Amino acid sequence: MLPYFRHLETTFLPRQQSLPLPKVTEEMGLQQVLWLLLLTFSTCGEALVKTMGESVAELTYHYDAKVDTENIMENFQIPRPLTNDDGQQETPPNSTAEFKNMIHDSSHQVINLAPAAMKVENFVPRERGREKESLKTLKPQNARKVTMMSEDEASSLGQMLAAVVKAELRECDLVVVYDTGYSDLVLLHHLLLLHNTRQVVYVKTTQDLTKIIWTSSKCRGYFFLLDDPEPLLTFATTYQDTWDYGGRYVLVAPSLQYLEGFIDSYIGRRTEKVVGVVKSDTEGEWVLYMNQLYWGPGARRINTWYHHRFTRQVELFPDKLADFQGAVLKASSFNYEPVTFLHRAENGTVLLRYGVVIEVVQAIARVLNISLKIIETPNDETWGEKMGNGSWYGVMGQLQRQEVDIGLANLFITSHWLQVADLTAPYRSEAMLFMTRTEPPLPHWQALAFPFHQWTWLAVLVGLIISGPLLFLLAWSSGRCVGEVPILQDLTFAWYYAFGMHFCEAHKSLPRSTSTQIFVLFLWLYTMLLTISYSASLKAFLLVKKQPAMMDTFQDLHESGLEVAGVVERYKYEFALSSNPHLQGLTKVFKYYDNQEKVFPSLLEGKCVYLVNQFTWDYLIKNRFTKRGVSRVRLMKEHYMTYSVGMGLQRHSPLKTKFDEIMGWIQQSGLVNKFLLQSLQLEASLKKADGGVEGSGSSQEDVAEADGVIPLSIDHMQGLFFITCFGWLSGVISFIFEKLILTD
């Protein structure tokens, strides 16, 4: 017998190897060994202590909520059957103190088991009666009531709960929560003999439920055996973030009304897998109900436990999110092109909703068999922000108030939105960009100066100034020695001679001396190369528009002092949290607009830049700001940030798991780009049907460009006319100067 027990001890209790196991000695009799065998299987919980054959004694003990579960185990002393050596019945101890004194008597052999955090309270062995007499639990002073069950009913309920574990929760960690009404040892005995890792919690108040370990690396099964529903209902409204919404729950409810009350609570509506057990009027019969989640209101009867077995073979925890059976879900949206388009009638009625996010949610609805109802935000509100009273408006406000199930906005996955709602996995990502006006090209008259760099112009000017005096000095020196043309020995004419050579103007007077001839020869060569280079470059600059210096960095934007416009208020706070000092400085010039249409006039006037996402930029550049291939707006080279984009859901929504899975399929398949193309094509066709497509008139210049020939217009040649006018004005001023001053 002893070797067999030691084999059981090491084979069937692998999860208790850290606990101190009792020692089996040769002096123990068969009765003590069987006691030890029974109690070893009854781990960390309630044990039914039975004598071998003729009597029943009961030990009532429970989990003390005030004792930390991490404390060291207290020794739990189990005496041998209360009979003396002659086989006569002994007087049972009247109190715990008497029992503790009794264990020191050498006539009572003691076995030390000691599971952790279990405490002996009010040990009162009852008088032995008939073998089938009901085992009644002790009622604490402040308890509401105690559920009265016969021993057979308690055993049947315990067998049913154990059957649920073996069928549905075999590989799960278990949490057994009970109060005084369900502390019958026969009932708990079946759960505590299971080999699942488990936690046992005795509940007196709501605070006791906070001691439950709500997380596990494996699946998690919860058994709530509560005669008093108040602690659980209070917990459901107070500790909403603590609840394990992905767990599997079995609630032994006092009534169907209590069960439906829990199912209709905040956490009940968000927990997918809930099974309720209610005692029927038939003796020995327990009815099982299942929450319907989105399938319908209340609880649905799914099975019956009668005569120690289920009457039907059904799955207790089916996947309620694989098929919504046509359930209606509400989604909120607003007009935000190109994510969502609202095609309205003349009276403002929405005739058609389309766009990328609309197509995505409709694809999810088709997969999950959801009937989708899309509504608009009130008062043309957009995403929304938190107000002074703590509530939100816009799409976020509708999710917070549980008016809709899904928020169809271009929601960036950030901690800002997670304050009030859950967000799905992303179906795309996009960068935030600064859109600014395309700076108008420089006037064509400035093209006269474009062929040369400013330093080149300075060198040409220096050469023009000194070439005349050098020619004069050389001619004057040569005239003193070998003779030279007299006119070149005049400083004014020598400078005019060199100036004319720069403009390819020939002179009849040729130098006579060799030195002067060599100087003039190289001056001709210099001016010829200079004029040819200038003329060739000038043709290109006359035909090509030159852009001014552009604003491309955060530093340029900050130093410009331009207004930064955005349709989301939180951008201002993100700028303030940035480590870049130039971005921090943008908080002073940021301005929120509730509609991007209000931004465009200031943008095109060059008074602001618009913080926009990549998706919106692609749409606007193709449909709003490009004409005859020329765009009126552009992007700064330095991008702000990249975000992932998803949808909004209510907090702790059970939709998130399935939505995340399908979002991954959509992203990987490239359907988002297809949805975008379809939306743009549909918008173009609707505008054409409404007569809203702008005509594209063609000027003579456009026709000429199409033929590959670009004639020089007045705009191209405006620099020449400016020079002519400048010459005329200079001549008039010189005439006035000579007439009025020199004549006098």
Describe this entry's structure for a reader.
- The protein is of the alpha/beta class.
- Among the domains are: 2-120, no CATH class; 151-310, Rossmann fold (3-Layer(aba) Sandwich); 451-543, Helix Hairpins, CATH 1.10.287; 715-744.
- Helices cover 37% and strands 17% of the residues.
- A hairpin with a 2-residue loop joins strand 11 and strand 12.
- The protein starts with a helix and ends with a helix.
Task: Please write out the topology.
Layout: H1 2-11, H2 30-41, E1 61-63, E2 77-79, H3 96-102, E3 110-112, E4 118-120, H4 151-168, E5 173-178, H5 185-192, E6 198-202, H6 206-209, E7 220-225, H7 230-238, E8 248-253, H8 256-263, E9 273-279, E10 285-291, E11 299-306, E12 309-310, E13 328-333, E14 341-344, E15 350-354, H9 356-368, E16 371-376, H10 394-400, E17 406-412, H11 415-418, E18 422-423, E19 428-437, H12 454-481, H13 491-502, H14 514-543, H15 554-560, E20 563-566, H16 570-577, H17 581-585, E21 590-592, H18 600-604, E22 608-613, H19 614-623, E23 626-627, E24 630-631, E25 633-635, E26 641-649, H20 655-669, H21 671-690, H22 700-706, H23 718-742
Parallel strand pairs: 5-6, 5-7, 7-8, 8-9, 13-16, 13-17, 20-21, 20-22
Antiparallel strand pairs: 1-4, 2-3, 9-10, 10-11, 11-12, 14-15, 17-26, 18-26, 19-22, 19-25, 19-26, 23-24
